[in-house]
Known about the structure:
The protein is 39% helix and 19% strand. With 236 residues, it is of the alpha/beta class. The radius of gyration is 17 Å and the shape is globular.
Amino acid sequence: MPRRSTGIVVSCEHAGHRVPAAYRARFRGHSGVLKSHRGWDPGALELARAVAIACHAPLLANTTTRLLVECNRSIGHAQLFSEFTRDLDTAEHMRLLATVYHPHRRAVDVAVRRSLRGHKRAVHIAMHTFTPVLNGKRRSADIGLLYDPRRPFEVEVADTLAKRLRAEMPKLRIRRNYPYRGWTDGLTTTLRERLPASRYAGIEIEVNQAKLATMARASALARDIATAVRDALAAL
Length: 236
């Protein structure tokens, strides 16, 4: 049986702000930080679910707060551990990596490789949201598409997805490699080092949290993004 052309895997690295019982004392009095954009990506899990359902794709979501360990940073990165866990000893750091970090990243890696066994190419959509104002500066986009412009397949996916998103939501501002650069440190960057450029595309979709202010707006946006991703995938 010939393989279908392109598969899809959806991940959400900052899906929640859960703190395991063993570490709750460290966050006592800091619930505001946990629930802010520093602790998680509000709305990202709902967006990721909508995309996964629309595309019949597996969804891998980490619901532990990024303030314990940052699943979207490499080992050794300065932001791997936050001010709440940086002073833990080596054994505790290793425990966090073993119980939170590695399981999520390994699950995404396995899902992508499984998709590649059944398809010629695989698109990995990593869903994130971003705060509309950072360090006093207002971000000038509603949706950002992060990718590596040196990888032709990722450029193809980003081009197709941008067109579909604009067709679905013509009033929204869609920018490429904004508010972050798609080739800097992250889970997609790690997978790019392991998988061929001709077969793997890691695209991070960043959505402005201002667009998720109400349940109705968030639901409509999730539906539109999911439709755009589904149609883009079908067009590849």
